[in-house]
Design brief:
heterodimer; A: 113 residues; mainly beta; 6-stranded mixed β-sheet; 4-stranded antiparallel β-sheet; 0% helix; B: 113 residues; 11 strands; globular
């Protein structure tokens, strides 16, 4: 497909477990973003990757959250020791330049029990 | 503290009429504003944007107006169509970190046939 893909689409986990969320950006897009949307809230910026530059991690809510982008393509968002407040839809987006009009994937709906 | 506010959680209009979605912001450093549309189970889709050097930007049925002194922007959809029914998010960014969007909570627009 031509769009941003994310997997899994849904994830249910128990409190305290680690989870990995995957994002496959559009081919050729150098910029990749992670956002999350908690219930009834707007999207919240988490992290931004641009080419080989150091990522902007300023939106990560705690040190339990980390993200990698391997080979300038696929990205993985890892949440360690999940908490119930981590329950949200995690959205990934990519774009060709510094512009903010990224193409979003469908998201991963995470539920922490 | 919410820096981008969409005070109307929902809006209902008749097909063919005008839809006006409103957004207020508090951060005077914001200089770029965007509107996204989101259907259920899909990621947000970029609709239209406006830079702070302009007060109006038009793209087909969609027009965004920016009132910097009031820190207010609005999205006009004319004429509204049933396919426009979705959640609309207002977002803003500032120079130097234009990839880092701050989103409102969204407004659910329903266009009735």
């Amino acid at each position: 497909g031509a769009g941003v893909s994310q997997s899994p689409s849904n994830k249910v986990t128990e409190k305290g477990k680690d989870v990995e969320l995957r994002c496959d950006p559009i081919s050729g897009h150098t910029a990749l973003y992670w956002y999350r949307q908690s219930l009834g809230q707007g999207l919240e910026f988490l992290i931004y990757f641009q080419g080989n530059s150091a990522p902007d991690k300023s939106g990560l809510p705690s040190d339990r959250f980390s993200a990698e982008r391997t080979g300038g393509s696929v990205s993985t968002l890892t949440i360690q020791r999940t908490q119930q407040e981590d329950s949200a839809v995690y959205l990934c987006a990519s774009s060709t330049t510094w512009t903010a009009e990224g193409y979003f994937g469908p998201g991963t709906r995470l539920l922490v029990l | 503290d919410q820096q981008v506010k969409q005070n109307s959680p929902s809006l209902s209009v008749q097909e063919g009429r005008i839809s006006i979605l409103n957004c207020d912001y508090t951060n005077s450093m914001f200089d770029y504003f965007l509107w996204y549309k989101k259907y259920p189970a899909e990621g947000p889709t970029f609709l239209i944007s406006i830079s702070s050097i302009k007060d109006k930007n038009e793209d087909g049925r969609f027009t965004v107006f920016l009132n910097k002194s009031a820190k207010h922007l609005s999205l006009h959809i004319v004429p509204s169509q049933p396919g426009d029914s979705a959640v609309y998010f207002c977002a803003a960014s500032s120079e130097g970190s234009n990839y880092k969007l701050t989103f409102g909570k969204g407004t659910l627009l329903t266009v009735n046939p």
